[in-house]
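Reopening: RING-type E3 ubiquitin transferase still failing for me.
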Amino acid sequence: MPQPSDCRKFLMLPAVQPGADVCPAALLRALVALADEILALRSNPFPIHRRSAREAIRQVGAILEFLADVRGRGSALPASAAVGFSELHVALQKLRHLLRDCARPGARLWVLMRSELVSNEFQVLVRSISTALDVLPLASIDAAPEITELVRLVREQAWRATVGTEPADAMAMRSMWSILGQFENGIAPNRIDLRWILDHLRIRNWNDCSEEIAFLEELFLASLDDGDEEEEAALLGSLMAFMVYCRVVLFDAVEDEKSSEKQPKAGARAVSHVNLDHLRCPISLELMTDPVTIATGQTYDRASISKWLKSGCLTCPVTGEKLANDSLVPNSAIRNLMEQFCHEAKVPIPEPNGKPKRDLTRTATPLSAAAAGATRMAAAFLVHKLAVGTNQEKNKAAHEIRKLSKSNIFNRACLVEAGSVPWLLYHFSSSDPWIQDNAVAALMNLSKHPSGRKAIVEAGGLGLVVGVIRVALRVEAQQNAAAVLFYLSSDEVYRTEIGRMAEAIPTLVELLREGTYRGRKNAIVTLYGLLQCPDNLRKILAAGAIPALTSILSSDRADLVNDAVAVLAKIAEGHDGTTAILKSSAVPHLVAFLRSSTSRSGRENSVSALLSLCNNGGMKVVSLLEQMPVLMPSLYSLVTEGSPQAGKKARSLLNHIHHLHDQEDLAMMGLVDLQ
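Support: Ran it again with your exact input. Result attached.
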């Protein structure tokens, strides 16, 4: 069986040659099934290469009539039919791949720009079908005369057919190259020209643009992994930037996310009524970390259904139906429900299996001059809308900045350069919760860039960020504002500036006490960053961080506990920090965490904290630890199984305790005084 399309490179057409010992009857059955799959693609719109696709499907329909008639009669097939059937099977496998690619959602622009390749493939496959029919011994195969004559007609038409790029497609492609040239020269293209191309591709709305961008990005990442030519990567970058520009400039509303975001409470209520089995993959029976929907409407985890398809099964595992195509469409609704369930159940959200992490350093420079020009113009347009647009336009602009800056370094630099930071900060005080939420999330992404952090501080944004943490209209804005402070705290100068603000550290500690899971996590890591500035330690202690951190040590969220232990270890490095920790109930919790944790870094942080407490607190601390019998086995375990650094710290702590034992023995002999 041929591999499904998600296991091959787009527009590559692999096929499996039937074995020489396969009988004609088996080939006939396989051909009928293959032709059925191709005919199932008739309902697709095929906005590009429409005529070629329709003609190919028409020919396959005529061939299927012949094959079905032969199979229905049940007569013996001559052995000589195997050669023609085998060649036809190979040609139809390739045609199925090509038609699926031409019909694939999100691939329209790329298919257009690869029109010459696609036309050549159609030409070759039509000729291959004609050749396969030519070698079939039609006179020796029992079929109705009129159907046999129809096959002869298809054979002759296929041989005479000239397949090329359709005039409208060629015009759209020329327009695309012209617009890319305008981007390269810093010229904003005419919106009428943009609309004409999108209409030709049947790209009607914001969602369609986003689908195209996602597909092009997927191709780009695959091209990097495959080591493809820079020319292809540059074209992909240009086309992504074109679609981003169109999405930004031509469409006034974000259709997909806003409606679902406006009902968070309803979604939260709904998850309590969801049957957990509905969030499990029907194949693996595990929670779906990357749910995708197939042609039958059933949803599976991507890893499981991909494995199913790769094994050659082209049916739905639940319904048993044959799949009209093997496209996998992400199911964001199930993913959101699964995330809500994990949050409510206080379990970590599992990451999708098999998804490689993207190397963002590859996005630091534009892929082409056209991509750079389009991105800069899109950024300028968005900043203008932030400044003078209606509330709907401002919200959409902030949302676009949020998306564009999420995982692209060059986009961040362009948006900062265009002056987006002051306007995003201005909308922190918006009375519209969605504008504020998108503005804060967008600024969080920009704060990951050095120029973004500089722009925030120079615009006087620290106070506004702290203010949103205190009185955000939505909890998501509060969480993201804390993340802004975290990224700012990565800079030595800015962490000092944050510490000088009277409200900054107390606000973070309050978030640590009362915030949501994500808010508390962002507060912890921000406090850790602020502790890199020694002047901030006393302010953090005065704000009550030790009791707040100690309470987290009893949490059932292992990642929060790990982070809290790391902060306590940093605090314990100083005498003031040691004194504050010893006045709390943190020490038994640290010992218990060292014993129970499976995190290597967590255990090392725990032993680091205990060692610092001993070094700064003296024999009283050592005596306190010596009275905890569960500590010694944990330390010996670290010596033998931990990292070299953790083992070294564990040995030092053991030496402290052994030295105390020696001193106690000498005291009993009257040789020393422990007082």
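Residues 437 and 476 are 7 Å apart (CA to CA). If you still see a failure, please send the error message rather than a screenshot.
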